[in-house]
Amino acid sequence: MPRNNQSNPLPRPASWSSTLSSRQRVLLHAQPILMIRQHWCQGGGQDSRYDPLCLTMKLFDVVIDQSGFGNEVVRQTVADALVPLLTALDQSAEQSADPKRHEHVVDRLLNGLLNESDHGQAFQLDYCEFDDAGRPSRKTFAFKLLKEVHGYSGEIVLQLSSEAINLFLNALDLDIESEQIANEAIVQYQLERGKYDKARASAENARGQSLRYEEKIQRIIEQTKRDIRQVKWRDEVHDIVVDALEHVRQRLRIEDGIIRAATDKLDAMDESDAKRPLVAGIVQLMKDCRYRHLNLNKLLMSARNEFLEQQSRQCFVDVFANEVINLRDDVLGHLLLLGSDRVLALADSCGHALLGPTAPVLLNLNDLIHWQLQPRRAYIPGESAVEDLDLRDTDCDRQRFDQEVLVDAVNVFARLDLPLRLSELLANLESDGCPVAMQDAVTLQAFENFDPEEASNLLPFHVRLAEANGLQTIRCLGDDLWIEPLENQS
Description:
Layout: H1 18-28, H2 31-43, H3 52-67, H4 75-92, H5 99-114, E1 123-130, E2 136-143, E3 146-150, E4 156-160, H6 162-169, H7 179-192, H8 196-226, H9 233-268, H10 276-314, H11 327-335, H12 340-350, H13 365-372, H14 403-414, E5 420-421, H15 422-431, H16 436-448, E6 461-472, E7 477-485
Antiparallel strand pairs: 1-2, 3-4, 5-7, 6-7
Helix pairs in contact: 3-4, 4-5, 6-7, 7-9, 8-9, 8-10, 9-10, 14-16, 15-16
């Protein structure tokens, strides 16, 4: 029997998932590096013996190792790290090392990673994916591996993108576009190497930057209260507030990652590890920096409301024909941009205009002598009534701690039933959220009761030396002490 004619079945739609698209983008991040390597190998010449792939890996390692906690990496830093590799490659090829050729190779590698052929723009690579109906589409993926930014010192510094950091440290296992994972990976990478001083330096630099932002915003608010017309909120202050908010956002995210990584490192360390106090100090310092950034964020959030309030208050103030000159911004700021020869010439020609309409009065010795030799004015008793003074005793001494804080500090020692180090006691108080004043009162009372020559019974506990220079907290440095309740002493 003839077979029945059946219509051809519709093809099944292509099966695709968003995970496959993500994995494609992950692999595309390595393509610029591989393309640089291919061009060097195909071009021939002296540069062909320098493998850009291994040089790129070393470059990534240097940038991550040096800039993980706020240090700035410039081109010379990278060149100093790559020159030994280039010299070794020259020796393997039986060629003499040439500093100019090495400089050319480093510049060529940096230009390739910075995409200088496209004026420093992001790499743009095409890839294919499918929608839910199975229809293919071409997408363009843009990203950067290395970028040049302005550092705090004013120099142009090198900075890896989040994608490059994740590509180097975490390969394909994590979300390579996550900046949070990149920051935590840097912290974990350097904490494992024991570079705790970089974490402290980074936190101190960030805290200093936050203090400068806080002083600048506070000065702008005070100037707004005096005269809102002297503050350019639309042009200048808006950008300052936006930059400060971005600084706070980045630092809070980075410090949270550092606190988590350092806490995990602290939990994994033995109690006898000599580096344990350093890691604990980093955690405490990061918490202090986070508190400082939260205060700055509170000030930034209230700045715009302050502007609106002052605008409503000063809208009915009379506008003077001549505006007041801002000496700091309009005069001093421009003078600092000029050379010393031009500033001296301007000071000689028109500097007197900045001194005001009248010159200060000078002392005249002749008038002073005549004033001192003038006859004494006659005194007539009873000419003016003398009021009776109500004399009272006043307590003008200002105390650091009130009575409630002192009582709470005594209760802290009263609850001790076993010997305990002062450093551990302060750490417990900090973790319990005790006020700073109470922590200082406990510290001072412990030192007050410490007498290496003669025992003292001023307080219900005994203090003796535990470790010289063993106390290292954010608020106190010195000798660590054993605190022992009196009833526990043998």
